[in-house]
Amino acid sequence: SQTIHQWPATLVQPVGSPLSLECTVEGTSNPNLYWYRQAAGRGLQLLFYSVGIGQISSEVPQNLSASRPQDRQFILSSKKLLLSDSGFYLCAWSLGTSHSNQPQHFGDGTRLSIL
Amino acid sequence: GENVEQHPSTLSVQEGDSAVIKCTYSDSASNYFPWYKQELGKGPQLIIDIRSNVGEKKDQRIAVTLNKTAKHFSLHITETQPEDSAVYFCAPYFFGNEKLTFGTGTRLTIIP
Prior knowledge:
The complex is a heterodimer. By secondary structure, chain A is mainly beta.
């Protein structure tokens, strides 16, 4: 069966520090991968998605970047964190088809607090 | 652009009663309609989904109904239990943008 792992579960970082959040998927090949951010008590905002190694689509301009160095690895990064980067970051995967009308399966998220 | 509205934003239901959450979308070409449940501190989990070729789908106490003409779909939970307390999101697929667009969520509280 497929599983998705995100780490760390919680992270406290000072303003201006770098960030690296990692997400890995097991049990499937060539998945579509997604990074979402969720502000407290709010809905999910899609940040990035990837349909293959090295292929990244950005949904909103921001202080963050994403990379996919391996088929089942998705990394969210920042060179200098801002206070506004605080939030709950969720990684998700779906079957790799030509269209994304497939269920998305989420990890348990990383709660990021910027001080 | 795509527009998703979810109602109500909060819902309190006596244990054992039914709960209904409605999601309205703007893209008439949408063909996939999932519902997700998010418990505190966890990622959303898919609980039921429906495609545009059917009008209703049921899985034990959970059902989803789709009205493509009116462009809305609803989540129905019967015989509610305390463990149904969570935030529920609809996420219709928008054909033009080829992605799921999440609603703003409904916080469901089951009163024992």
